[in-house]
Specification:
Length: about 400
């Protein structure tokens, strides 16, 4: 739930930027600075919290981060000018950076069964993206009945409530390493070449999924007569699909093996292809659901494999993974913006679908049945084709 509200706290900024600009009498481009103010420290601080959690305990770091996000989200409602709002959002983003990587690393410490662990990771990640997908509707609705200040205050109060349950129900265990050393933690992680290859896949996931999802709202508005609140509600289907699929990701992986990556890539490719060519809303809505399932079925096996490489430093591993996904998403948003300007939305989503196919093929070769075998890229691709067609 903390992940739901933290991601919503970030993405709810989109429908309220116009109100912020009007309230402070600044251009919309200046008001949008508050989004960048949140995202920049979010990306930078991701790499710090993993090693800290490994040393001092994951629940302790989660609770501290939850307190920070709740406090500074609430204070944002009291901002007196655009500069103060940007500063409060920046501090909020720094604290929020801990929630996702440390929570998923805690899942890795909590579950012994690979199936249960992957189902839990998928549930957590799905809830995060459900919060992001629902934020447009929630933020737009709250600003409509109140103001943009009510949006930040509501999210802050919700985070305070969840923090109470964290203190009540979670056990504050010890860290898994004896000494805090960022240099040692990352030197060990970066020296594991296979780990680097696996987490690098998340750059492609971030580019293909986050980099394209950002533009779906405007894309839907252009192709329908719906307002932003209705479109925000439709986009929530992506998060619901990711949440529902994530709860069963481990079960699906247990049944089909690493072919889950092939399934995800085909589902993602077909979904984005339908979205790109927009035949009608009747087909696009199921495609949006398929896109959400494809995302979580790609994400969960990659994260599970990465965590097994350094089981005592799962916090560091998750920080490295989250940083790759964040950078991939940020670059994807920028590059896709240029693609949309030059070629239009259709090519944006078609290119994203190809990126998802590439992610799955490379991921299958890295964490599939050939990882322990000596084979050339050509031979591995031939074996991949034979296994998939046989199944």
């Amino acid at each position: 739930m903390m992940g739901f509200f933290v991601m919503g706290d970030n993405y709810a900024a989109s429908p309220i930027i116009v109100d912020i600009a009007r309230d402070f009498s600044v251009p919309i481009s200046t008001a949008a600075m508050t989004v960048s103010a949140y995202m920049l420290p979010f990306g930078l601080f991701i790499v710090l919290f993993g090693p800290i959690a490994d040393r001092f305990g994951k629940v302790r770091v989660i609770s501290l981060a939850a307190l920070g996000t709740a406090l500074f989200s609430s204070l944002a409602a009291l901002a007196f000018n655009i500069q103060s709002l940007a500063l409060l959002r920046a501090v909020n983003g720094a604290f929020a950076a801990a929630i996702l990587p440390v929570t998923i690393s805690l899942i890795g410490d909590t579950f012994d069964s690979p199936k249960s662990m992957m189902n839990a990771i998928g549930t957590i990640r799905g809830m995060f993206y459900l919060g992001a997908a629902a934020a447009t509707a929630i933020g737009g609705g709250l600003s409509f009945i109140g103001s943009w200040r009510l949006v930040y205050l509501t999210y802050g109060i919700a985070e305070f409530i969840v923090l109470v349950f964290i203190f009540k129900y979670l056990e504050f265990g010890k860290g898994t390493v004896e000494k805090l050393s960022f240099r040692k933690s990352y030197s060990e992680a970066l020296s594991d070449r296979h780990l680097l290859k696996v987490v690098s896949l998340l750059f492609l996931v971030g580019f293909g999924v986050f980099g394209s999802f950002t533009y779906l709202g405007d894309y839907f508005v252009r192709h329908t007569d719906y307002n932003i609140l209705v479109v925000g509600s439709i986009l929530t289907l992506f998060g619901l699909a990711a949440f529902a699929g994530g709860r069963k990701a481990g079960t699906v992986k247990d049944k089909v093996g690493t072919e889950i990556l092939v399934l995800a890539s085909l589902l993602g490719f077909i979904s984005l292809f339908i979205i790109a060519y927009w035949i009608n809303i009747v087909l696009v809505i199921p495609a949006l659901i398929g896109f959400g399932l494809a995302f979580v079925f790609l994400y969960v096996p990659i994260i599970f494999t990465a965590q097994q490489r350094l089981p005592k430093q799962r916090g560091t591993v998750m920080s490295l993974a989250a940083f790759n996904m964040f950078i991939g998403g940020a670059i994807g948003v920028f590059v896709n913006g240029r693609i949309e300007e030059m070629l239009g939305y259709r090519y944006l989503f078609l290119i994203a679908s190809i990126i998802i196919l590439l992610t799955a093929v490379v991921g299958y070769l890295l964490i599939g049945p050939f990882t322990s075998e000596e084979c050339t890229a050509r031979d591995c691709l031939i074996r991949l084709y034979e296994r998939v067609t046989a199944k």
